[in-house]
Specification:
This protein is mainly beta. The strands form three sheets. It has a seven-stranded parallel beta sheet with strand order 1-2-5-8-11-14-17, with no helix packed on it. A five-stranded parallel beta sheet has the order 3-6-9-12-15, covered by helices on one side. The longest helix is centred in the first third of the chain and has 10 residues. The N terminus and C terminus are likely disordered. The chain is globular and about 45 Å long. It contains one helix and 17 strands.
Length: 191
């Protein structure tokens, strides 16, 4: 069943087969780099200080400590347990969902994560598609993106991206930017 944008239903409350991730940046990077399509990585309440941008691979889900809860309910709550991913010292973004030319990327989900740009000139979450490649089923849900010197969430040229229940604050450019390089055939849902 689809959600109106051609994406497979996603239920954060469902019982997913999960792979727990440790609480260091090295644990996160290793888990993401070894993940396979269909893997659901669960991240504890921890702060991951990246040393380089992190690319989320095809078909992988990252569930933070606040997965399933709208960001407005926890983003500003100092007592809420949070999964925080902070910006590296260099690079274009904190998290990226991107594929090489001709590759297909589908069903990448980010849920319940706080992405902190650490006041650097970075995008928080950057979704980028190249000509000739398919990119569908991208879901950024219940996330908070803060303190970015560029766009908070940049969804470029995807088909059927769902961006909902997020909080974006203190960013220098667009809070949420949807750009379609060819300006044809793409849908994005914002709630």
């Amino acid at each position: 069943e689809a959600d109106g944008f051609g994406n497979t239903d996603y239920d954060a409350d469902a019982e997913w087969p999960t792979i727990p991730v440790g609480d260091t940046a090295e644990d996160l990077v290793n888990a993401v780099e070894s993940a396979k399509p269909g893997d659901v990585l669960t991240l504890p309440a921890a702060t991951y200080e990246l040393t380089e941008p992190l690319t989320i691979p095809n078909g992988v889900t990252l569930l933070g400590a606040q997965a399933g809860k709208p960001a407005s309910e926890w983003e500003n709550d100092e007592t809420a347990e949070k999964t925080v991913i902070t910006a590296p010292d260099s690079g274009e973004c904190v998290l990226t969902i991107e594929q090489g030319e001709g590759e297909t990327v589908t069903d990448v989900v980010l849920d319940g994560i706080l992405v902190d740009g650490d006041n650097k000139d970075v995008k928080g979450v950057f979704v980028k598609k190249y000509d000739g490649a398919a990119m569908t089923g991208i879901v950024i849900r219940n996330c908070a993106v803060i303190d970015c010197g560029n766009d908070g969430i940049d969804v470029s040229n995807t088909d059927g991206a769902v961006i909902e229940n997020n909080y974006v604050g203190n960013v220098s450019d667009n809070g949420i930017r949807y750009g379609n390089y060819k300006n044809t055939g793409s849908n994005v849902g914002y709630v």
